[in-house]
């Protein structure tokens, strides 16, 4: 176990270093100068502009050599000092991320986990019931194949604009201040529902389709045939098939949960939902190096942690991975 | 009689209509008998084995019946058959390497099977299981292992133990030795005999295309050709003095120890078996048979030529029924060779 863990840890460390380097490089490939972009918002006299430009370039460290900037970047990561946002000056990057993160997590984790659980059940049931297979599954295909931005327009149009059941956009009502009152929590929930519903519907179909195909395959494979030939009850055979079919699905879940911390840009833009996706989108628009880098670092760490957790979960449900854990050639 | 099969016909459903893979097959299996069932691919031997234990949705019973210990097996009634599987009829499958579910321990799989059969006294079965594991030289810690942790030979032996655990009257062993090396083949064959001798299984059908393994383990051998039985006799009679032209050709095509095939050419059987989609009338071996004559356009009966020796061949029944000896038409072999490619 120790050997397995240390090997994994080294892998993740290498992935982290590569991730951080790419993260540092990517924003700098965007053409243009962030300080210049920021200052162009104000009407400044040329002399004042030059002075401000010089000061701010120094303050943000954009005037140093690439190597200096890179080293500085590592230093700031290790001290967990992500700096100050250029676009939302003078808010700190960590504060901005801290504000957006709860919205993203509250939106995506329930949507993904619920759709995973329900979709797998639905798919497994569809694998053995013709009626369900012919009714629910095609619906799943439709939701899956539908361009998500379009769905994210249709559903709010019906439920918010036409029927006024739910508010159209935002994280909470504009007329409220964030406090822990019931009115505010209620407002949070009603604003949360529509984006949740669209993400849930789209992934539900995907999980159900995947599970259905996997279960059908598992029910026909040799080990199911053998159990059947030995008179195992159909319920027992299905339980075995479901367990085997869950493994690839679980890897899929791991991948999805890993990128959760990055938010869902399209959903959050469509619903003006104040999560990380929207923050990321705004940061790109503002050429906000530090905010971009901060969010990416967050995503990198999130993906790595999620993968590690799933590695551990896999060990407990798939005995074959336990073998490779002991150091035998996999 | 342990097993009596009467006029059993099994068909596969297909888009072009039903394909009769097993056509009016009748045979008997005595208590304690290990019967070898041999034939080439597509002859229907595995279909007989499957029909006796599990008809999958593509298969259907087209006629006939099977009695086990005097009681008729409800072959087309899946629910009724389920209770008899493993307890009365059991199967060691062709695919033993992949038969064990991968994500559960062997012990757990066995426990689940016992639960499915509503067996109350599981401790007794378990101690019997441990005794049998010891008998064939497997440690009981194997029950805490997963299938992928076992070698091929171990998996094969574990499936045989699992399949025979509840002392079935009939064990169908489908190509159990095909994927193994010769020394493991022998060990597995001996295991079948040992289990029969100890009464773990009352009788067995060993399905294979390998006649040499049958010579070692089987009491009798039944030869199938294109969905029908060609010959059934004691192992000695089949190997030493086969009567059916197909059996003769089959035995002749086996290499012999001590014969240098530089000197004598190892011959095969010219031609191919007929397609079962639209099988020819009469004897199905007719096209490839060097002894074929006019009478062969009628289906030969599976007749008992001598006590315990049945053959489906007009020529053989004429010879042994006091009829005149049939002359072999010249060039029959060349003719049958030219029909190559009429099959699928």
Describe this structure in words.
The complex is a heterodimer of chains A (330) and B (344). Chain A has a domain at 103-288: MetI-like fold (Orthogonal Bundle), CATH 1.10.3720. Chain A has 330 residues and is an all-alpha fold. The longest helix of chain A is centred in the middle third of the chain and has 39 residues, at 182-220. In chain A, helix 10 packs antiparallel against helix 13. Chain A contains 14 helices and no strands. Residues 326-330 of chain A have low confidence and may be disordered. Chain B is of the alpha/beta class. Chain B has two domains: 3-98 and 166-229, Rossmann fold (3-Layer(aba) Sandwich); 245-338, no CATH class. Chain B contains twelve helices and twelve strands. In chain B, a hairpin with a 2-residue loop joins strand 11 and strand 12 (309-311). In chain B, helix 6 (152-164) packs parallel to helix 7 (182-197). The longest helix of chain B has 16 residues, at 182-197. In chain B, 43% of the residues are buried. Mean pLDDT of chain B is 85; it is low at 322-344. The chains are: A mainly alpha (330), B alpha/beta (344).
**Level-1 CATH class name of the domain at 103-288 in chain A:** Mainly Alpha
- Low-confidence region ranges of chain B: 322-344
- Please give the most extensive interface between any two protein chains, plus how many residues each contributes: A-B, 23 and 34 residues
**Beta-strand level of the residues of chain A, as a percent range?**
under 5%
Q: Spell the H/E element sequence of chain B.
A: EEEHEEHEHHHHEHEHEEHHEEHH
Find the count of extended strands of chain B (DSSP E, 2+ residues). 12
Our estimate of the beta-strand percent of chain B is: 15-25%
Order of helices and strands of chain A: HHHHHHHHHHHHHH
Overall number of domains of chain B = 2
**Strand pairing plus helix content of chain B: what structural class?**
alpha/beta
